[in-house]
Amino acid sequence: MENKKKLRKISELGEFGLIDYITKDFNQSKDGLIKGIGDDAAVFETKNKLSVITTDLLVEGVHFNLIYTPLKHLGYKSVVVNLSDLYSMNAVPQYILVSIALSAKFSVEAVEEIYKGIKLACERFGVVLIGGDTTSSLSGLFINITAIGFAEKDKVYYRSGAKKNDLICVSGDLGAAYMGLQILEREKEIFLKDSYIKPDFEGFDYLIERQLKPEPRRDIIHFIEENNIKVNAMIDISDGLSSELLHLCKNSNLGCRVYSEKIPINPQTEAAADKFRIDALTAALNGGEDYELLFTAPIEMKEKLEKHNDISIIGYITEDIAKVLVTPTGSEIELKAQGWNAMSKND
Ligand code: ADP
Ligand code: MG
């Protein structure tokens, strides 16, 4: 698609010209922002709030593959994975910094596409791009995004806050992004063998979307706030439910008991897992990149939580530090972060 237009080399603009060009349409005004892009550093005021800061480095070939990742989606996703980390701390995202390292094959137009996605995320979530860095790379594209949010004092959700008997809740459904990735990888292999074959995503649009365009759960954070729901601990699900549950338990010095049939899985995830001969539950537990929220709340919150049909209560926190998954037949399996395949169909 891109080849039809005449593409400009980055060297035509130079580093400073490129920075000016890609950042020119970005809003620079926000209450408390004193200096955005254009000086040696950005300056903003925090007004008695806590600052919550996170960063993520995405590396071509490790975290994304440009064969099937549209650049605009890549820009969007790079931002929202950071926003997901801020929401899970109960911070309101305010600012981002974007650093990129570009290989020689990148055109001005390609960088522009990435920034279109970044801009869309900024607009949608009300954050302002206040700076970054631009450099060249000898081995593919690197994108590093730092996101800064503000939180009310005493209202930050930590992984360490879970209490004995807390309900364990997850938003949305799990495993879909992983199955989306499997489909994209399969289509990539087919495409590399014969570029005339068109990709076949029929019936799996939701999975592709979950992989390429994840949405951070700001809506769940708002629901919790609006309904006065007390949350004791929260973490976002970027590496799979098992891994996040283990983090939460370890940091809280407690254990958990979760029920496999309560873990939310979309029908498309089930169908794709079937096709790929993967157990859908394994995808949900170990897949990653769902960007849903995992949190614990006191048992008195049950009724309020059940009002939301996109929140599932999957188990509870235990004093005993064992992390247990209970299967529908009642057998108990120890949760492991990786390599857990006790339920895979090949067994
Ligand atoms: P310095 O030499 O001080 O690092 P730069 O010339 O790299 O400054 O950057 C000039 C301004 O442009 C700074 O405000 C910086 O934060 C911003 N900037 C640089 N690269 C990017 C980028 N890729 N995205 C957004 N802002 C950038
Ligand atoms: Mg610089």
Describe the structure.
This protein has two domains: 11-151, 2-Layer Sandwich (60s Ribosomal Protein L30, Chain: A); 159-334, PurM-like C-terminal domain (Phosphoribosyl-aminoimidazole Synthetase, Chain A, domain 2). It has ten helices and 13 strands. The protein has helices spanning 10-23, 71-88, 108-125, 176-193, 205-212, 218-226, 241-252, 267-276, 280-286, 302-306, and strands at residues 33-35, 43-44, 50-59, 92-102, 128-136, 142-151, 167-171, 233-237, 255-259, 292-297, 311-318, 323-326, 332-334. Helix 2 (71-88) packs parallel to helix 3 and helix 4 packs across helix 8. Residues 16, 19, 23, 37-40, 98, 100, 129, 131-134 line the site of adenosine-5'-diphosphate.
- The helix-and-strand class reads alpha+beta
Percent of residues in helices comes to 25-40%
**CATH fold-type name of the largest domain:** Phosphoribosyl-aminoimidazole Synthetase, Chain A, domain 2
Order of helices and strands: HEEEHEHEEEHHHEHEHHEHEEE
Residue fraction in strands: 15-25%
pLDDT averaged over residues? 93
Q: How are the SSEs ordered, and which strands pair?
A:
Blueprint: H1 10-23, E1 33-35, E2 43-44, E3 50-59, H2 71-88, E4 92-102, H3 108-125, E5 128-136, E6 142-151, E7 167-171, H4 176-193, H5 205-212, H6 218-226, E8 233-237, H7 241-252, E9 255-259, H8 267-276, H9 280-286, E10 292-297, H10 302-306, E11 311-318, E12 323-326, E13 332-334
Parallel strand pairs: 4-5, 9-12
Antiparallel strand pairs: 1-2, 3-6, 4-6, 7-10, 7-11, 8-10, 9-11, 12-13
Helix pairs in contact: 1-3, 2-3, 4-5, 4-8
Adenosine-5'-diphosphate binds next to helix 1, strand 4 and strand 5.
